[in-house]
Amino acid sequence: MKKRMKLHTPFFLSLTLIAVCSILVLSVAIFFWYRSLTIQNVNKANESVLLNTANVYRNYKDVAQNYTMDFYANPNIHALMMSGDTDWSDQLYSALSQIKGALIVNPYLENAYIFGTEEPVAMFENLPLSLDSKQELFRKIQESRIVESPFLWTAQRNDGSDIPLIAVFYNDRAFANSAYYGGVAITINPAELQKNLFVQQGEDSTHYRILDEHGNLLMHSPGISEIDPEMAQRIIQTEASAEHSFVFKGNDEAKLITYVHSEKDGLWFVSETSYTDSVRDISNARNLMMLLCLALTLVAIAIAFWISRRMYQPIDRIFGSIVHLSGSPDSPQSRDYRIVNRELESIGERMAQLRKENDDSAVLHWLLAPRDADGSGTPQRLAELEGSYCVCVLSAEKDCDEMLALIKLTFEEWANLRIFRPHRHTAVLIVSELTPGCLDDPEDFQKRWNQVEHSADAAGIRYTLGVSGLTGLAEQLKDRYDEACDCRRHVKFRKQQSIIFAEGLLPLHAGPIPESHMEPIRTAVRKRDEASINQAVGQLLSVTCEYRAEASTAFLASLASELSRIGAKKAEHWDLDLLDLYPLIDRIGNHAELREWLDHHCRVASDRLDRIDGLQTRSLAAEAVRYIAEHYNDPELSLNALAEKLSISSAYLSRLIADGTGSNFPELVNLHRLEQAQRLLIGELELDIREIAEQVGYNSSTYFTTQFKKRYGVTPSKWRIHHVLEHKEP
Fold this sequence. Notes:
Elements: H1 8-73, H2 75-83, H3 90-105, E1 109-115, E2 120-125, H4 131-143, E3 151-156, E4 162-171, E5 183-188, H5 190-197, E6 207-212, E7 217-220, H6 229-236, E8 245-249, E9 254-262, E10 267-274, H7 275-278, H8 280-326, H9 337-368, E11 389-396, H10 401-411, E12 415-423, E13 426-433, H11 442-459, E14 463-467, H12 477-490, E15 499-501, H13 519-527, H14 530-544, H15 549-565, H16 578-586, H17 591-631, H18 639-646, H19 650-661, H20 665-683, H21 689-695, H22 701-712, H23 716-726
């Protein structure tokens, strides 16, 4: 029983293993998918809170900004800034009362300063600052443009301690070279502002922070104070395209960090949630999933056992019959599938060998067997026949019956025919003298075969026929049979010829075909020209018909193997073996089929070269576009210089760029230059038009202005002024 279960046991174990692994993989995939979905939902909720916090922060900042604008627009305060005269008046008292009222109503607004042209002229301080800090603030307001409000600033109190403040101001300096006529500044205390921004709700485990652009903690929700420096650096070094969340493992438990960057404010809004709390739902479902997996595993094992038992019974009987049929000495004792597989292979090899031996022996037996003169009836030894005979080997595409009928009709009153058909599509004939000397006239003999050929062509019969030479010796029958087979194999190399005579093979070359005859095919394939390939294939086949079938077949097999390697990648390399190609070519029946086969190999090799050229073309176009994007600011950049660098012609490079981008070379270069010029016009206000033109690669500022206006409709100067004024509105 133990030996009989050799197949059942691994079969059962295989089914069980497949089922269990499938269940585990599915469970793990569901677990990680649900966990990812849970974390994603938590991130979305935190991100929504952070965006709302950022909006609230901007609202508080805008309130302070509006105060500075209103105070600056007050004529009494403006007169105070211009003159520095602090003489008492009802109007001045009313204006200053407004400032003090704003500080009282908004506790997060600490101090208010009115700056003249030379020094501070008035101030209201809930948080007194040192004289140096006031002078520093005055200089910052004096040197800053209105678009730079607000800014973060570390001030010093009267007691010498530092405190971070947010300075909101307003002045008339719209440009870097604008004159300064005084200003109004209000400082925001982040420690007071955070009380308005963050309100902790009960047992909420999520904490919030606001960081400056250097990762320093500016504001935070209740219950936390410092931030891990590593966490802060990881946040501020994040690329813009990266995900705005990560799991941070510090000294304590893991935390889910979500953050939003306000580029306009230069601040990072960060939330911190316990990782355990963020995946609490999936953690609660983990035990249920484990029980479900265990139950499914038990069910899978039971089903695998039932299937393996039901399938094993008929398989066991089949294997037993195979092993018994093989006659192996192990057959009474074993059902091991390896032994069965080995016995099946052995049986297949023996059957193939026996089939071949049977066909060969049948032909030889028929050739040498005694027969009557008409091929039937009372046996008669061939050696006893007088006169000459020849052997013919016939192969037909469909059936030999029609062709044999034509041969009988042509030769029945003139020669004796003996026919043997080992297969439906194959026949072997012995054509012998019906009367002494009737085969001695070669012209008459050739004429009758020509009649057969014309009749077969008229009937549309596709066939090949090899005819041996005449002999009168019975012992040469086997040699004449081999000769006829060689003639039939050579038919495929002759165009529009289906019958080959042994006499026609005598002038053929018996040596190998020189390899130089492959060169026209190689050249035509590399040119990828259909006409050249057709011409080269025709020339090559005209050469092969001048050599023996063995040499021509070996030559074409070598050529096909080489074509299979042209342009093939290592991963898809299907280098054909000569031992596989030789019998494949040998089985080809006619010239048209041989030409189609060779054309196919040439086209496949040509298509692979086309594919490689396409990849190289796309690679060159991408390299050219990348080079232009990196070197657009080079005044010497030109189509000829880039073509020379890529080792291609300028016309070919121009076509590659046009096909790949839809723009010609000058248009693409101008596009990169003008886009960079736009960035410099709004980001580098201290640069004039001439300097910007030089930085983006133009030798002439006039030409730069012309190209800019042609593309954007306005000159660079007007475009800069319009953009600055548009973005300076509060």
